[in-house]
Design a protein that fits this description.
The structure holds three protein chains of three kinds.
Chain A (H helix, E strand, L loop, with lengths): L2 H12 L9 H9 L12 H11 L3 E4 L6 H11 L5 E4 L14 E4 L8 E4 L3 E3 L4 E5 L14 E6 L4 E2 L2 H11 L6 E5 L4 E2 L7 E2 L6 E6 L6
Parallel strand pairs in A: 1-12, 2-3, 2-4, 4-7, 5-8, 7-12
Antiparallel strand pairs in A: 5-6, 6-9, 10-11
Chain B lengths: L7 H10 L1 H22 L5 H16 L2 H14 L2 E6 L2 H14 L4 E4 L3 H6 L1 H7 L3 E4 L2 H9 L15 H12 L7 H18 L2 E4 L3 E3 L4 E6 L3 H5 L5 E7 L3 E2 L2 H16 L6 E5 L13 E7 L3 H4 L15 H5 L1 H6 L10 H12 L16 H5 L6 H14 L5 H15 L1 H19 L4 E2 L6 H4 L4 E2 L6 H10 L1
Parallel strand pairs in B: 1-10, 2-3, 2-4, 4-7, 5-8, 7-10
Antiparallel strand pairs in B: 5-6, 6-9, 11-12
Helix pairs in contact in B: 2-12, 3-12, 9-10, 16-18, 19-20
Chain C lengths: L1 E4 L3 H6 L1 H13 L3 E3 L9 H5 L3 H15 L4 E4 L2 H14 L4 H12 L1 E3 H8 L11 E6 L2 H7 L3 H8 L4 E3 L15 H4 L1 H17 L4 E4 L2 H13 L6 E4 H6 L6
Parallel strand pairs in C: 1-2, 1-3, 3-4, 5-6, 5-7, 7-8
Helix pairs in contact in C: 5-6, 5-8, 7-9, 11-12
Classes of the chains: A alpha/beta, B alpha/beta, C alpha/beta.
Chain lengths: 216, 468, 244
């Protein structure tokens, strides 16, 4: 007997109530996927999201015109004496990067890239978190390899809880993609003397640019 | 990992005298206990959420076979290969075979306590595969050839100076003293490991049956890197880690980071499903998920089943006064503190860890904070019952307990015995009414005086007063 | 209210004054107090060592002796917890006994809990004057929710100033046989507790469980502190702290 059969046999023997096939309860739980206890709905999703994101050491700028994003990013990078070179997701490639003095290429990130510019599938107000779905147009490395991660977020895509985020995913996609990444600020570690240090293996900083989507 | 729990008492002596460890442990206490307290109030109704979380875990544990099968079916449909392993050796063999199959020479690893159970790193090194730990704490331990001392904060027992020494020695670079500089150095040393690794190895905090996904929580980004860049990803975890749905795992995620590190959410939560598609730019071409038993199935359906609810947050050990005083290494195996005092005997052998279920005052601080309401003191007591049934108690202890019980069931002899006993103790107390040495109770009197009784029992005095 | 007093084995042998103090308080609260003569031990030592059968035997003995009372009161959180929380569980496989035992368990109280919620004692006989600090014994706290009750009763005493210690709810390291079997560890835990007590500069440390108090006193004295008084809350509330 294989390990699989041995293990399942032991479990089956131990559970007197075992059924031969998945029970109706199991299947209905999967079908209904009920939510657990939820926090109260925040009065203002945008406000709540901004407060939580700032608490997690993300930086935030806002604009009503998405075409302004490159200028805002340039100002942010220059102020911090950071490189103005990076990569972006294809959907953002036509924003006026060169005009703002930024060298941005539309391709997945490589180790040498210093800035990675992405969008986001949605964001969660409860914890100030971005939800990213991997895909050919939304490579995961862009928000991971560079030292600065810039996420352009449509405020209308801020939902209250992670449960709401899953609901959005279920509505707009059939299956989860290969990777769903929830990102809540710059990478960090507290392994040395329990002292939180920003910038471990992932980005050192996360800039959230709240802007309406393209084509509005 | 080799179980050295038989050394517990010796280790306690050593750890209590270890000043650097004691400093580190008080840091842990203020950060993790204080940290949890600060954010746990964010949960609207904590008790309701804990009850829901326990119910989520029980739903799966009570029907483990079918939930595992559903997970396997979904994961396989999305392109993952699911393996089953009965022992740690099986895991090592499977990973080595996967490595051979895919021509793997180097592996980058993010934290996996289950892999510690198996001794995976050693097995891979012996097979000629070099393994780099990438979680900062685990990396430090790898350099120092030490085992983790906490399931969430593995290197809590070391201070910054020790780590600076270690880096200076092993990296061949000038010694840094600033924590941020040490972290930057680790980042620079480890980045090539991520980029060049043929295989990424990780654990999985949860397995989601609904979608066939593995869920990993990290803060550093190494978890994302090892599961995104290498062409092969192997995730190893225990069979009890299955959770039914995305919504269920979300309820557990409300509790896990808050209970563990005092964070509202870990920096990264990664939900990984299947393999890279041809049109993707990143992700593993091959995704292997290994389900380990290693004694867990023995707990299913038993009076110890509740222990399998554990979501490895570490809150129990953070709040345990015993752990707070001795740290994790004294426990002798992978899992320390209250949860380790139960898992170590159950998974590694009850006869190998006679002290662990007994080194507890049953204060209950652990049970109060456990996010999934595991009745830890009750489980420890059940282990003590098992030990008694197996004849593991010392003859002296068994005898004394038997005598005490007999006396307690025979009031006249009890009263007489007590009368004599308290008079002896009163005499021993002398003028200052303190007993400095009690033969047979050196454990008490080595460090404490024993306040002598007044010399008459309550029963005697009460009878006297009634008669007068 | 007819109260059966279970003095507990430790109070019986080591500090009878706590038993008399308890009677004083219960009578001051208007209770008729009986002390069943055949009582011995609640069985916790055996139970916590893994001897379920011993605990079952002693639980049955308890039932015979105390079932007839309106209430059962104990000057100990750990013994009261043993009865209230664990006795019923011992009979989970015996429905008839379980019913009887659950009924008595629900009428069983730790002293300060009883005085606060059931007897509602308002006028406290005690005359203690000075600062004291309170140690929260684990079982009373976590099994029986005893925290506010002793503080509320002590607050009714004009002469009492309560200086809370840091970590009043952390275990003192007694744990029954743990205190002997893991003596070094137990001593360290007691030492930590004593440091917190000393930091309050209180004249007395007060608690609801004699096991904890013996442990704390033992370490204080070994450390050279012969002035901090170690008192049971019953002694302070009843005015019998002079005798202690």
């Amino acid at each position: 007997m294989s390990a699989r059969e041995n293990i399942l046999e032991r479990i089956r023997k131990a559970q007197a109530s075992a059924t031969a096939t998945p029970s109706a309860t199991l299947l209905s739980h999967l079908a209904q996927h009920p939510r657990g206890p939820l926090p109260p709905q925040p009065e203002n999703l945008l406000q709540c999201f901004k407060e939580r994101a700032l608490k997690l050491s993300s930086d935030i700028v806002e604009t009503a015109d998405i075409q302004e994003v490159p200028a805002l990013l340039a100002a942010y990078l220059i102020e911090r004496i950071l490189p103005v070179q990076g990569v972006c997701w294809p959907v953002l490639e036509n924003l006026p990067w060169p005009q703002a003095g930024l060298e941005i290429q539309s391709r997945p990130a490589k180790n040498q890239d210093m800035v990675g510019i992405t969008g986001a599938f949605c964001a969660i107000a409860e914890t100030g978190t971005l939800m990213m779905l991997s895909g050919p147009e939304t490579p995961a490395t862009t928000s991971l390899l560079p030292e600065t991660h810039v996420a352009i977020l449509d405020p209308a895509r801020i939902v209250a809880t992670m449960e709401d985020a899953w609901e959005l995913l279920r509505k707009e996609h059939k299956h989860p993609p290969r990777a769903v990444n929830f990102i809540s600020g710059p990478s960090r570690t507290a392994d040395i003397e329990q002292t939180v240090t920003l910038g471990a293996h992932g980005p050192y900083r996360v800039l959230l640019i709240l802007a309406p989507p393209l084509n509005t | 990992m080799h179980n050295t729990s038989l050394q517990f008492k010796k280790q306690v002596t050593i750890k209590l005298a270890d000043v650097r460890l004691q400093d580190a442990l008080s840091r842990l206490q203020s950060r993790f206990v204080g940290g949890r307290a600060a954010v746990i109030s964010e949960i609207h109704d904590l008790q309701e959420t804990r009850t829901a979380a326990a119910a989520i875990r029980d739903r799966v544990l009570n029907n483990l076979e079918h939930w595992l099968l559903h997970f396997e079916q979904q994961a396989t449909a999305r392109g993952a290969i699911v393996h089953w392993a009965e022992t740690g050796d099986d895991v090592n063999r499977i990973v080595t075979e996967i490595a051979a199959q895919h021509n793997v020479k180097t592996a980058a690893k993010s934290k996996s306590m289950v892999s510690e159970e198996c001794g995976l790193n050693d097995a891979l090194e012996q097979a000629g595969i070099s393994v780099m730990e990438t979680d900062l704490g685990e990396y430090i331990l790898q350099l120092a050839h030490e085992a983790p001392s906490h399931i969430v904060a593995p290197v809590v027992h070391k201070n910054k100076e020790e780590i600076a020494d270690l880096f200076a020695e092993k990296h061949n670079k000038p010694r840094k003293t600033d924590i941020a500089e040490l972290c930057r150095e680790a980042r620079e040393v480890l980045r090539p490991a991520f980029l060049n690794a043929d295989m990424g190895i990780s654990g999985a905090n949860f397995l989601i049956a609904e979608t066939g996904s593995a869920l990993i929580v990290t803060n550093e980004g190494n978890g994302r890197l090892v599961t995104t860049l290498p062409r092969v990803h192997v995730a190893i975890t225990g069979i009890e880690k299955v959770v039914p749905t995305l919504e269920d795992v979300t309820t557990l995620l409300r509790l896990l980071p808050r209970s563990a590190t005092g964070q509202s959410i870990t920096n990264y939560v990664s939900v990984l499903t299947g393999t890279k598609k041809p049109e993707d730019h990143d992700g593993p071409e091959h995704f292997h998920i290994i389900l380990l038993d290693n004694g867990r199935s023995k707990l299913v359906g038993s009076e110890m089943q509740e222990m399998l609810r554990c979501i490895r947050c570490g809150a129990c050990m953070n709040h345990c006064p015993v752990y707070q005083n001795i740290g994790g290494h004294a426990y002798g195996w992978v899992y320390p503190g209250p949860m380790g005092s139960i898992l170590t005997p159950m998974l590694s052998g009850i006869e190998k860890s006679p002290d662990l279920p007994n080194a507890s005052t049953f204060c209950g601080a652990c049970a109060v904070v456990c996010p999934v309401k595991i009745p830890l003191p009750d489980l420890l007591r059940r282990l003590r019952e098992k030990q008694m049934q197996l004849g593991m108690k010392s003859r002296q202890e068994t005898f004394m307990l038997r005598v005490w019980t007999w006396l307690a069931l025979h009031p006249k002899f009890y009263a007489l015995g007590n009368k004599i006993g308290v008079r002896i103790l009163q005499l021993m107390g002398g003028k200052d009414k303190l007993i400095h040495r009690l033969p047979g109770a050196g454990g008490w009197t080595n460090g404490r005086d024993f306040p002598a009784p007044a010399g008459k029992t309550f029963r005697e005095l009460y009878q006297q007063r009634k008669q007068s | 209210m007819r109260v059966g007093l279970f003095v507990t084995c430790l109070v019986d042998s080591m500090r009878p004054s706590i038993g008399f103090a308890t009677i004083n308080l219960l009578e001051a609260a208007g209770c008729e107090v009986t002390v069943p003569a055949q009582q011995t031990c609640c069985g916790q030592p055996g139970y916590n060592s893994g001897d379920r059968q011993a605990a079952i035997a002693l639980a049955k003995k308890f039932l015979d002796e105390f079932e007839a009372f309106d209430y059962v009161v104990l000057p100990s959180g750990s013994c009261a917890g043993m009865i209230r929380v664990h006795y019923p569980e011992l009979f989970r496989d015996d429905p008839a006994m379980l019913t009887r035992m659950s009924a008595v368990a629900q009428r069983t109280y730790e002293l300060t809990d009883f005085l606060t919620h059931i007897a509602k004692l308002d006028k406290i006989p005690g005359t203690f004057k000075g600062t004291l600090t309170y140690h929260d014994s684990c079982s009373g706290l976590r099994e029986l929710d005893v925290y506010k009750q002793p503080r509320a009763l002590l607050a009714k005493m004009d002469g009492v100033t309560l200086n809370e210690m840091v970590e009043s709810t952390t275990c003192c390291g007694f744990g029954g046989t743990f205190s002997v079997k893991y003596g070094e560890l137990s001593t360290r835990m007691a030492d930590n507790k004593c440091a917190h007590i000393t930091d309050t500069h209180a004249g007395a440390i007060v608690g609801g469980d004699l096991g904890c108090l013996l442990n704390i006193e033992g370490r204080l004295r070994r450390n050279g502190d012969h002035t901090t008084r170690v008192l049971h809350v019953a002694e302070v509330l009843s005015g019998m702290d002079k005798e202690a």
